[in-house]
Amino acid sequence: MTEAPTLVTGATGFVGAAVARALLAAGITVRALVRPGANTRNLDGLDLETAIGDLTDPASLARAVAGCRHLVHVAADYRIWVPDPAAMRQVNVAGTLALLRAAHAAGVTRAVYCSSVAALGLTRNGTPADETTPVTQIIGHYKQSKYAAEQAVLQFVAETGFDCVIVNPSTPVGPRDIKPTPTGKMIADAAAGKMPAYLDTGLNIVHVDDVAAGHVLALRHGRRGERYILGGTDLGMAELLALVNQQVGRARQPVKLSVPLLWPLALGAEAAARAFGVEPLVTRDHLRMARKKMFFSSAKAMRELGYSFRPPDQAIADAIAWFRATGRIARA
Hints:
Largest sheet: 7 strands, parallel
Order of helices and strands: EHEEHEHEHEEHEEHEEHEHHHH
CATH architecture of the domain at 6-172 and 206-231: 3-Layer(aba) Sandwich
Low-confidence stretches: none
Oligomer: single chain
Helix content: 40-55%
């Protein structure tokens, strides 16, 4: 008898493709939700089935989840700047809730929802935050949408008893960053020598394959309605760029910039983006977020799920190798 599949949304993307691979490696049958016309290169060579659908089309979600045992929901609209925030919320909030409703109605027995550390609070002094850190301010439309989506998931679980576990990846880095993500673009630009300056912020860097393994662990061992940070190592931006330079053999470090000096540039870039429909180089939300240290602890996931992560230089090396192999940056 064929095992009922696990539906993976976002499987054509960066994190979702890694999750699909991790599930397959664990012997789990995978069905991938694929949007019409999506680039499916990240699924090449994988032994899985596909279902055509979209988070904004509830009927397609019902068809995709039919007959599935489990659900791993990774898909999201992830952009720092958007011309229409309502469209982002339609995908990240309404789409998530529609998918959970479809899964619950179809008899799915367990789900993992991929949220983000963007939905969590930060400490005032820059020490690592965890799942219990209070949320006092959420900057940017993406983070606001992920916070709202997470709250909608928690409310759905409370109202229905649906068995759903939440994971909160920090900043994944590694291969198959096909778009790429904002962090992946930064690493590729820095590796190519196209990043002469930086803002003094801080990120928690984790290999995308460790995040994917964390999803499998959450599916197997996570507790209903609980959140688990899937993170790695806290790095200041200077430390992160030093690791990139080390990988490519570059000695010169970019120049550190001051946030206040960039405020007029951000205002101008946003005005140009609205006028011409192009993505701005820097926004006010970029600058607001740069004032925060996005540092996080994965202790709960390590303790309860058996989660672990590799050093950040391995994640950066794998990302650079993939960007080189795909022609985004020149080969060494």
